[in-house]
Write a structure and sequence with these properties.
Layout (H helix, E strand, L loop, with lengths): L16 E6 L2 E6 L15 H5 L4 E6 L5 E5 L1 H9 L6 H15 L3 E5 L3 H14 L2 E5 L2 H8 L6 E4 L8 H9 L9 E5 L4 H10 L3 E4 L4 H12 L9
Parallel strand pairs: 5-6, 5-7, 7-8, 8-9
Antiparallel strand pairs: 1-2, 3-4
């Protein structure tokens, strides 16, 4: 038997381990959790990450997250290699850099194509990635495909209005903390109070001022807000 890993010596709680064997070498890889077993399509990671031998490729999950596929035999070789920067350490630094450089994703839900296009143009200039939906039903379908960092939501829409959509989101454990800014021509206190009672984070009237929307989004996103590119 080999020597135990240092990170396990003072461990005060249980954690799952993945056991691997490569020839005569056996290794236990400590992980945070086991999610599920699924079939995936492995894609190339490009020239920069392709130079890291511990990465076989990457796959994209339904919520838009990029998951990297590790080359376990190479990690085993790294574990036996002399001291120095390992492929796993290089991969960790690359993952961190990718996450820090990722543009936040905004979802625009409005039945007016003019409003969708105008708001999408503004957010794109500010450094956001954007996904659009024409009503609440369309937005729900897209939400489970790609989880946004913030939602800009109209009220009056066909099939499912903004109030119903916001209520569904606030009662879903996966999305209940998702920031929602409601943008509508219904600016009366009755509609505003209803929105706030549902859990909408901010309420703006149409037509909104760009600076007003920017301030509201900065308040909701905090450190996730990108540098302005206007």
């Amino acid at each position: 038997p080999g020597q135990p890993l240092n990170l396990l010596e003072n461990l005060s709680h249980q954690m799952p381990l993945l056991l691997f064997r490569s020839g005569d070498i056996k290794i236990a890889l400590a992980i945070d959790s086991i999610d599920s077993n699924r079939e995936i399509v492995i894609k190339s990671v490009g020239q920069q990450l392709g130079q890291i031998s511990a990465i076989n490729g990457a796959t994209i999950l339904g919520d838009g997250r990029v998951i990297f596929i590790l080359d376990i035999p190479t990690l085993i070789e790294d574990y036996q290699a002399p001291s120095g920067t390992t492929n796993l350490q290089q991969a960790s630094e690359s993952f961190k850099q990718i996450e820090e450089n990722r543009n936040p994703l905004a979802m625009i839900v409005d039945d007016s194509i003019t409003m969708r296009k105008a708001t999408e143009g503004l957010l794109t200039r500010l450094g956001f990635d954007v996904v659009t939906a024409k009503d609440g039903v369309d937005a729900l379908a897209r939400l489970y495909e790609q989880t946004p960092d913030i939602v800009l939501l109209d009220v009056e829409m066909p099939r499912m209005d903004g109030f119903e959509f916001a209520s569904i989101i606030r009662n879903d454990s996966q999305f209940k903390h998702l920031p929602i800014i409601m943008i509508t021509s219904r600016t009366g206190d009755k509609h505003r109070q209803r929105a706030m009672s549902i859990g909408v984070n901010a309420y703006l009237g149409k037509p909104y001022q760009d600076d007003e929307l920017i301030i509201s989004m900065k308040q909701q996103l905090a450190y996730k807000y990108p540098n302005e590119k206007r």
